[in-house]
Amino acid sequence: DVAHTPQAVSSVIQTLTEVLPGQQLIIVLGLAKDKDLDAVTATIAARFASFYCVTAGESGRDASEIAQALR
């Protein structure tokens, strides 16, 4: 439970890049149904080469829907 908006996702990515320079980053992503799937995944897809998508409980989007949006 780290970031819920594209702006927050960008901030987390920036921090990880600063704290772990040169490291290959892999993201585990689950997203609630009420979050902006397209905006969040566009932000993430631009910075990560590998993703693990998960369904985050009853209020979460299906992992396959998240994976499709990242393509």
The gist of it:
With 71 residues, the chain is an alpha+beta fold.
SSE layout:
Layout lengths: L5 H14 L6 E4 L7 H9 L4 E4 L9 H8 L1
Parallel strand pairs: 1-2
Key terms for this structure?
71 residues; alpha+beta; two-stranded parallel ribbon; 2 strands; 44% helix; globular
Structure description:
With 71 residues, the protein is of the alpha+beta class. It is 44% helix and 11% strand. The chain has helices at residues 6-19, 37-45, 63-70; strands at residues 26-29, 50-53. A two-stranded parallel ribbon has the order 1-2. Helix 2 (37-45) links the parallel strand 1 (26-29) and strand 2. Helix 1 runs parallel beside helix 2. It starts with 5 loop residues before the first helix and ends with a helix.
